Amino acid sequence: MSPTRDLVGTSDLDIFADTLADVAAGRRPADELDRLPAADSPLALRLRRAYGETLAAGGGPQPEPLPHQGETVIDYLDRLTVDWSDFERAGEITRDVVHRLADDKESLRKLVYDVENKPELLAMCERHQLLDYIVLYDALDRGVRLRLHISTEDHFDRPHDHRFSFSSRIVAGGYTHTWYHFDGDLYAEGPDPEARRYLSRHNPDPRAEGVQERLTPHIVRREEPGSCYTLHHSALHTTFTTPDTVSLFLRGPVEKDRSVIMDKAEGTLWWRFGRQDEPEERRRQKAMGLDAYREIRERLEKLGVI
How confident is the model at residue 49 (pLDDT cuts 50, 70, 90)? Predict the structure, then answer.
């Protein structure tokens, strides 16, 4: 299975199907359908026809699933376990969570504000060149770590992968999203202790000459508020953001020891490891701290995210 081909279609069609049901029930204008990424795909056209036939045969809209009665998204997170070894099912579950949370501003606001009183979460919040993130919820023993990402003013085309699989939902702003095909396997030889020497764009891995020549764009699409997708840890992608882009990011457990970041303009690459495997100086550099957290929280307020 291609981790890009299959789940790009799945996430777009989820949005299309939900919007189609709302249009049929009169909750949204019909022209919203035509603005969705999947609107002209063969599967979307089949969905339209099938839904129309069902309406004609049954004399009314299809029944909607029962709501999560009396349960907040936070309640649901507290009892949720995600098995990421079943990648497609994990994607379905986690996309549902981030969709629900994005639409539940009260719960999202509570999660953001609670971080100030949870030092174990605040200690995990980080600042990077291209984004800052707040860890809202952590239960990796159950396959769940929820973060809120906020883009910085820097925007670069840097193909990268992740040590874990995840689902993401755009809340504000947007970005050009490129998914890449890589000819080969960067991790074929397993753990690479020498990679720990090359952790910065200022000190790239000299062994990587010619690697980017094996990288070709596979899919390019625009992610806007409401866009949602699931990415396998083996996939390489780039997110070229606009200012004030905010997204919910629900990740699973670590599945490899490191991830890669490439600079296309310079033809270089370097590596990222988990916090426990990074030098103390690196951990200090990216730590967010309480003052920065409060500044970012205020920014989220002004953007209307919380």
Answer: confident
Handedness of CA 78, 115, 286, 167 (dihedral sign): positive
SS (H, E, C) 192-252: CHHHHHCCECCECCHHHCCHHHHEEEEEEEEECCCCEEEECCCCEEEEEECCCCEEEEEEC
Cα 168 to Cα 8: distance, rounded to the nearest angstrom: 12
pTM to 2 decimal places: 0.75
Give a yes or no: residue 63 inside a domain: no
Q: What is the mean pLDDT of residues 269-284?
A: 82
Residues 77 and 44 both lie in one domain: no
Number of independent structural domains in the chain: 2
pLDDT tier at 247 (50, 70, 90 boundaries)? very high
**What number is the average pLDDT over the span 173-189?**
90
Q: Look-up: residue for tokens 């495997």?
A: 277
Q: Which domain holds residue 240?
A: 73-302
Token pair belonging to 198? 């090359």
